[in-house]
Amino acid sequence: MPLSITAPLCSNNIQHEVVFTQWCIQKTTVNAAEHPNQLPSSWQPTQVPGTVAQHCIAAAQDATQIEDYDWWYSAHSEPCAEAQSAEIVFEGLATLAEVWLNGHLVAQHSSMFLPLSVSVQLQAGINTLHLCFRSLTHALTQRRPRPS
User: Fold this and answer.
1) Pairwise CA distance, residues 148 & 145, whole Å
2) Measured by CB atoms within 10 angstroms of the end CB, which terminus of the chain is less buried, N or C?
3) R_g over Cα of the chain
4) For the whole model, what pTM was predicted?
């Protein structure tokens, strides 16, 4: 299932959708990749919307302890005729999510209960979207200061 992003055309401000398809997923050890260009090329096709657990079950992979790993998604847009501003709206991202567009970190999010809206600049041609869901197990083992 594609992710659609509504973007105004620069010439006459008419709304249209830019569709991201060809969704793939891969798991990495905690913090093995801090940037999408550090990822190995071990992508597997997956369904979006969907969860990591759903992917593991559909791919006959072990769905236990998924929170012990970082999980990366990747997708590509249909070609854009020109660079344009757009708004990406995520209705629910799992905890500790990072949103990357064309190799740039554009948002971080830490609540699966709140939507995330991100203003971005799409480039002319094909755009690449990466979503990283960081290990919850690792995050919970980190010492943090007590709230004041």
Assistant:
1) 9
2) C
3) 16
4) 0.86
